């Protein structure tokens, strides 16, 4: 199919009498009392064939064209076949972002090439128009779509599916996308048979976006640079816009540890990798989450990236970004090839 890069969710609109703005995250989203939502074009939208340097082939595929659910698929240009598959969810507080954002396109194309994997980057529905659990449902429906393509022997998708080892599938994402990957994995864990022949071998959570009513030390005292990708006030706004109306930040989708950790022991999760940024306001919360998973008997690998903050791997907003990005890609490759 043709490239899907004119993402209507991210189209900027002017205030044509929309009235009072009730929520705003500067430069990213404005929500008006009448329900109108504006998303200024903060990051360029790019087609799938932009600047791949012959290393990766990328195409856009529809999952459900009626709701504009689609994915951007990346395949190394000289594939060896039998490659692990990474189903990836972008970040953006559930409210902004796109699989066609240039920063994700560059990061995932590079990751597919350097880690030797096929990546399916999901363009899920955004809040507040589609509050949680809409993004989780999009994630699960994307897996079901993938299952159906395998079982039907889809000729349309052979160009990439023939390179895949679907028994080595990983759910991954950064920030809100990591939250989605985790919550999709908990749904799959209830009945793994529902997605067969797919088999989730691992979960990769990059700076997972969790929250809570009580502040952590890093949320209260972490000094954020002017170009920080996530502040406490922005985090709070994202949760107000994405959680079900009437709930707070101790809702389990926001705070999976709010009601103790007993439920974690019952989850049949595969191996989990948690990537934490040292300067991220989420650092303490992410480390606490990793500790709770390990305490519940899950196999967890935690990596802390020094000297960088939230979303460094896509925003390159630190002098250490390039070094840490290469470290991250090496860690992800090793995790997927065990």
What does this entry look like structurally?
The active site is at 175. InterPro entries: AB_hydrolase_3 (IPR013094), AB_hydrolase_fold (IPR029058), Carboxylest/Gibb_receptor (IPR050466), Lipase_GDXG_put_SER_AS (IPR033140). It holds the Pfam family Abhydrolase_3. Belongs to the 'GDXG' lipolytic enzyme family. Residues 86-313 form the Alpha/beta hydrolase fold-3 domain. This protein has 338 residues and is an alpha/beta fold. It has one domain: Rossmann fold (3-Layer(aba) Sandwich), CATH 3.40.50. The protein has ten helices and eleven strands. It has an eight-stranded mixed β-sheet, with helices on both faces. The protein has a three-stranded antiparallel β-sheet with strand order 1-2-3, covered by helices on one side. α2 crosses α4 (176-190). The radius of gyration is 19 Å and the shape is globular.
